[in-house]
Amino acid sequence: NEHGSIYHTYTVTVEAAPYWIKMPVSQIYGPGENVRLDCEVDGKPKPKVSWSINGTPLKDVMPDSRRKIQSGALIFSEVQPNDTAVIQCQAHNKHGSILANAYILVVWLPAEILTPDGIEYAVVENQIVILHCKTFGAPRPKVQWFMEDMNPALKDERIFI
């Protein structure tokens, strides 16, 4: 004002409860597959993350060499049906906590070709044709293409998958 001025500096620190950047996702796996569950969170102060298997904290679960935490993700190598479980990721700081459940279902399902047999494709000579082969199974089926004479299709340089 006309009588002078005064200044004062304030420091404001903004903090936040934990929030998700990447949540673990439920999925079906086949025996022998590898599983990676991401649990990426942020907040201020930086949240602490903990994992549980079927409600038991990971530190209290029997150790397993096929299970490890790497870069914040819980990784299972070569899962088997007895690895089927509910996995929880929890993050907390002084402002709150968040929890996510991911279901790991390990099942063996025989390979199936879902694309109907006998589909005919019309193609113009020297043009590209795309043949479809939709499959389902656990573990995920490996698809191989063969020529009419039963030679592998990939031996022909014009064919690629």
TrEMBL record:
A Pfam family assignment: I-set
Ranges of residues in domain Ig-like: 18-105, 110-161
InterPro entries assigned: Ig-like_dom (IPR007110), Ig-like_dom_sf (IPR036179), Ig-like_fold (IPR013783), Ig_I-set (IPR013098), Ig_sub (IPR003599), Ig_sub2 (IPR003598), Neural/epithelial_adhesion (IPR051170)
Keyword entries, A-Z: Disulfide bond, Immunoglobulin domain, Repeat, Signal
SUPFAM superfamilies assigned to the protein according to its UniProt record, in alphabetical order: Immunoglobulin (SSF48726)
PROSITE patterns linked to this entry: IG_LIKE
Any one GO CC term of the record: neuron projection
Listed name of the protein: Ig-like domain-containing protein
UniProt source species: Micrurus surinamensis (Surinam coral snake)
Organism taxonomic ancestry: Eukaryota, Metazoa, Chordata, Craniata, Vertebrata
